[in-house]
Amino acid sequence: MTPAERVVRAATRAYGETVTEVRPLDLTAAAKPGERHVRPRRRRRFPAWMAPVAAAAAVIALAISLVTLRTTPSRPAPAAGGVPRYYAALTPQGPQGFQNPLVVGDTLTGARLATLTPARGNWFTAVTAAADDRTFVVAAQPFYDAPDKRFPARTWYLLRVAPGTSSQVRLTRLPIPDLKGDDVLAVALSGSGQQLAVGFIPNYATSPKSPVQLRIYSVTTGKLERAWSTSDQTVFGGPGRASTGSVTTALKWVDDDRALAFPTISTASNPRKHEDVTHETMRLLDMSADGSDLIAASRVIWSTQGVLNQVTDYAGQLSCANTFINPMLTADGKTIVCAALEFPNPPRTLTAPGRWTLAWLAYSTSDPTVARTLAQVSVDASRGNSPSIDLLWADSSGGTLIGTWSIEAAIAVARGGSPNPPAAYRPHWGVIADGKFRQLTTVPDMNYIVSIAW
Fold first, then answer.
1. For residue 237, which of 165, 313, 324, 314 has the smallest C-alpha distance?
2. What single string gives the DSSP state of each residue in 136-179?
3. Sheet harboring 259-270: ordered strands across?
4. 197 contact partners, CB below 8 Å, separation of at least 6
5. CB count in 10 Å sphere of residue 416
6. Which of 111, 110, 139 is nearest to 125 (CA)?
7. Which end of the chain has fewer CB atoms at under 10 Å, N or C?
């Protein structure tokens, strides 16, 4: 456990002990204008400091105002600089920062349409988007620290965005099962907004080696439509991932919702060489495939590997496997995009600076061994304050991405947990297109995120 994780865990437990009641949801609208599996020794995901919250969280229903569920698909919203107009994000804020309010914002103008605060003692923990840029599904759960570590019931909500109307944001509870006691590894709303895919380990607290499940639920009825399972716990990146953000990037609907793409991530240690070798694959599951075995029904369409020195953090190869960030298959099914890292000249001490290379790469499914660099940045940082990189969104062809990079944000949290860290620790949000990383200034106060969807 890192120092930052210790700080967060202690703070969340202390806050959890203060919970005495559940109050109604506060919806405040803004002014009008998303091998062997072992736990990797080191993670480099931007919101990794929230891992203890993810591990501790589980689910009860929120006291919330319900509205009528609409099933008519929305038309796609206009894009801003090649990215969707609206996003929904979970971002810790204010003196009760671990509540993870749900922020709905305008990517073009930076305006907030609404901020939804969960009932006291509860958290929004994941959000996933449909292709129309107006439809989202949100997961909610309470903070808890039960002795048996079992996960209580999760609650699912449909979020509709209707800019320019009297109700710009509408939240509706869904009939999808609560998955009580299960460790959710991945969620993905289909492009049409009609189906929700959920990957999880049943009864994880008492049976951590239980087969991983993948289920498809109807958003409208909550009915179970398809189900698969596997004993391979490397799927969806495996349990114990560093952040809840990975939950909403570990599954992607592709090919007009006819298939699902998901990664496997495994790490094997070589004590003799003091190395961790990480292997990543991207698998494709056709919805028409027969059988209920997830591995047998899917196929590998891409793989890569990265080697990290356990002592120096030396990663002399620019590889997506060095980041432990989920790769993504684009919606057209033709391109894998991923976030990569290289540290070719590690300094001898934790505090000495060195040059890091951060990049976003693309691979064609027709030639999956050849990487193409979409954008690249060089960062001077020490081993003890290493940079982080993330991949948050990709368009249907991989021509435009949204990503972030920062100097280790978790250190700023460990130094005080402020939602407004020093400038040096704030993330650099960017649109990645035409070989460049262009600063995205319309989300300036999003210093820490738990989950975001476009």
1. 324
2. EEEEEEE----TT------EEEEEEE-TTSS-SEEEEE--S---
3. 252-254, 259-270, 275-286, 298-309
4. 186, 187, 188, 189, 190, 214, 215, 216, 217, 251, 253, 260
5. 8
6. 139
7. N
